Amino acid sequence: MRVLKTVHELFFDSGCGDVRTYFPKCCSRILSDFGDFIRSSSRAEEMKATCTIVIDFSVTHLVSTESEDCQWAEQEAKFLVHPRWIDACYFPWRRQPEDDYLP
């Protein structure tokens, strides 16, 4: 429904054109919200990390900026790092100090 509303707004804001041309624009807008997550997880997987959205005992690093995650990481004695940490590790292909990339 959100996509259809966005297409509707785009169509009437521009005042002309074929509605079918707006779907790619809409989808790219929606997916751009997830762009950083997708890029980070694929880079981490390239470096042989196992990425998951399930938080359990096997997690060693929690990549997040959310305050609730900070509490969990502290309680479980896990590394909590900002998503930029993955980029910092990716380019030189070596682990960077986690303390330099706190959320």
Automatic annotation (TrEMBL):
Annotated catalysed reactions:
O-phospho-L-threonyl-[protein] + H2O = L-threonyl-[protein] + phosphate; O-phospho-L-seryl-[protein] + H2O = L-seryl-[protein] + phosphate
User: Which compartments does it reside in?
Assistant: Nucleus
Per UniProt, the keywords (alphabetical) are: Hydrolase, Nucleus
Q: List the lineage, top down.
A: Eukaryota, Viridiplantae, Streptophyta, Embryophyta, Tracheophyta
Where does it primarily localize?
nucleus
The terms under GO molecular function for this entry are: RNA polymerase II CTD heptapeptide repeat phosphatase activity
Protein name as it appears in the record: protein-serine/threonine phosphatase
Any one Gene Ontology cellular component term annotated for this protein: nucleus
Give the EC number(s) under which this enzyme is classified.
3.1.3.16
